[in-house]
Amino acid sequence: MSLRQTSSNSKFPAKTHARKVADELGVDNGLIYLPGQLESTWEDSDMGPSFRQRRYFYYLTGADFAGCAVTYDMNLLLWFGTTPTPAKCLEKADLDEVKYVSDLPKYLISKLATVQQLYVLRESQMPKLGSLGVLTPQVRVDTTSLLPAISEARVVKTDYEIAMIRIACAVSSKAHHDVCARFLYFKNECEIEATFSASCIASNSHAQSYPVIAGSGTNAGTLHYDSNNEPLEGRQVVVLDAGAERNCYASDITRTLPIGGKFTREGKASTTFLQLHAHMVAANGLLHLGILHNGSAREIFANGTTAAFFPHVLGHHVGLEVHDVPGREKLMLQADGLPSVVRRSKRTPITPGILQAMIKDAAGVYGGPFTGRRELDAGMVVTIEPGIYFCREYIEASFLKKPEHAKYINREVLEKYWGVGGVRIEDCILVTGEGHENISSAAPKGERMLNIINRR
Q1: What are the Aminopeptidase P N-terminal domain coordinates in residue numbering (predicted)?
Q2: What is the mean pLDDT of residues 382-393?
Q3: Which of 172, 339, 390, 435 is packed most tightly, with the most Cβ within 10 A?
Q4: How confident is the model at residue 341 (pLDDT cuts 50, 70, 90)?
């Protein structure tokens, strides 16, 4: 496969995506209207941020440029834009018709005279009809149904979407390999970021799914560290969390690399049990290291104390967003009476209280197991990303100062691990009818990663 090519000769499946949305809406009459993103400039400047298309709009069009809109009347998918030409747009995406955006108001007025329902994502995206008129009284405007319908449709990916995520993972895996191959020469975090980004651009993936995270030492304990400007000298590991986009589809891969090409005793111990998962595994591993004591793994787990070292969710959906929409149900257990504890990313902290509530939910206290949790279906792409972190400020403030947690934490042993900062290993997993496939397995890890770093 050439990473410089899109590797998909098929058109963007706009009609397939539109039909999925219509099925989720459960209607056969009405008009969907979605505007694309406009170009913008910074205040007092003729320059602006890099263009980023609205993902819900892209899902129905495959159009990644500014000044566009799309309509779908449950039978006809019509796309409006400025550049490239309508003929070129029809070549790239499976659409019924493409017109210039100047024709949009006139088309909407005529179409809205024949339908009774207009679906928009939110009130701020209502169509602007200008001087041609206003909505007739018989047209009902629905600003609440479309967002959950498209979100649900996006959860299970089409073949085209899976192909794009595969390419993004392949590009990112090669970039992780290139970092490993040069790792012993790096002196600063910025060199890691530069090498990863350059490799992706050389593979014709110019956009990153999220800012590159290249955190060394204590910076590795910050989940979304992105300064990437500190020296590596005197530190133990680097957490490299980075993934490229391909045609707006994301990847998300994390590896933990030993500075100097060899893990320290503490760094190696921290990574030994990471490729398994969840808090019980963490509790057993931390007991083995002596960081936790004075209780069994189950007792410490039930107390929520493992959240000190594993304070984020185990995974999330991947698609048009790196932390993609979860649809109507969450991947994680969700306790009754609590807010939605996990939206779509690992940014939401898992506190001891949330962990305890999730345990109770799994045990059936709140109406049976799996309350509020989605089952995995073939075609979903999710991450698995266990991590162990030694963030001094967080652990001291939220755990060591609280007797109910402090009694289980061995301060003397923990002191040896502050310098590790944190470790995380993350892969993108495609759910299949037979099980699963790791589509980011080409990114080096374990013994293979060490062999590449040390040129063995």
Answers
A1: 12-125
A2: 93
A3: 172
A4: very low
